Amino acid sequence: MNRAKSTLEQWRILQAVVDHGGYAQAAEQLNKSQSSLNHAVAKLQHQLGIQLLEVKGRKAYLTEQGEVLLRRSRHLTQSVDELEQLATNLGQGWEPSLTIAKEIIYPTEKLVDALEAFIPLSRGTRISVLDSVISGTHDLINQQMVNIAICATPPRGHLAQPLCECDFDLVCHPDHPLAQLGVIEDEKQLAQHLQIVIKDTGSNSMNDIGWLKAEQRITVSNFHEAKVILGRKIGFCWIPNFLVEEDLKHGKLHKLKLHGSYQRRITLNIIIPNRDRQGPASRLLESLILLQHDIEAVAVYTEKAKA
Question: Where is the HTH lysR-type domain (predicted)?
Answer without folding.
Answer: 7-63
